[in-house]
């Protein structure tokens, strides 16, 4: 796979993730938080990516909130399909130091919530990202650090 192909795939994933960022912002607003959504832009080339690096998905209280979604379905701790929880890529945690990390199920009806205050309990592990096909370092936590919630209509 070339850098060009990889970058095109990244661009596609970034564009497809945009509605999730807005969904996360709506959920945070419904919980009474004031939210700022920074503009999103896509680097035209792999070589220009550093200039377009994101500085967090959503801002609450001047702190970053990372919004993610996964393909695996879940509604609660009991049906969470994994033995642990991937918080976020190590580089992104180091760069943005998020206050909260929110991960939605495929339909957006439920989410896992990790408070950045639990970071001392996280560990760094290599994991292979299925959609990317390469191994990278992620912060991982036990399910004790995660609360699960239903999105209120």
Describe this structure in words.
The chain has 153 residues and is α+β, with helices and mostly antiparallel strands. It has a single domain (3-39, 56-150), classed as Trna Endonuclease, Chain: A, domain 1. It contains 2 helices and 9 strands. The longest helix has 28 residues, at 3-30. The relative contact order is 0.16.
SSE sequence, one letter per element: HEEEEHEEEEE
Count of helical regions: 2
Instruction: Kindly estimate the percentage of residues that lie in beta strands according to DSSP.
Output: 25-35%
Report strand order across the widest sheet.
1-2-3-5-6-9
Instruction: Please state the average pLDDT score.
Output: 87
Counted up, domains total 1
The backbone outline, from C-alpha atoms, is globular
Q: Determine the N-to-C terminus distance.
A: 43 Å
Structural class: alpha+beta
Helix coverage percent: 10-25%
Please specify the SSE layout and strand pairing.
Layout: H1 3-30, E1 35-36, E2 58-60, E3 63-69, E4 85-89, H2 90-96, E5 100-104, E6 110-115, E7 123-129, E8 134-141, E9 146-150
Parallel strand pairs: 3-5
Antiparallel strand pairs: 1-2, 2-3, 4-8, 5-6, 6-9, 7-8
Provide a short characterization of the protein structure.
The protein has two helices and nine strands; from the N terminus they run H-E-E-E-E-H-E-E-E-E-E.
């Amino acid at each position: 796979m070339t850098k060009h192909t990889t970058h095109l795939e990244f661009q596609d994933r970034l564009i497809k993730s945009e509605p999730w960022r807005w969904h996360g912002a709506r959920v945070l607003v419904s919980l009474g938080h004031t939210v700022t959504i920074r503009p999103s832009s896509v680097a035209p080339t792999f070589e220009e990516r550093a200039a377009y690096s994101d500085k967090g998905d959503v801002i609450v209280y001047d702190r970053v909130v990372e919004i993610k979604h996964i393909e695996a379905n879940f509604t609660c701790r009991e049906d969470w399909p994994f033995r642990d929880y991937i918080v976020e890529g190590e580089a992104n945690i180091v760069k943005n130091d998020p206050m909260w990390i929110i991960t939605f199920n495929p339909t957006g009806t439920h989410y896992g919530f990790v408070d950045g205050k639990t970071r001392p309990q996280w560990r760094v592990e290599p994991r292979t990202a299925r959609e990317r096909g390469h191994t990278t370092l992620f912060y991982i936590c036990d399910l004790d650090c995660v609360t699960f919630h239903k999105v209120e209509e």
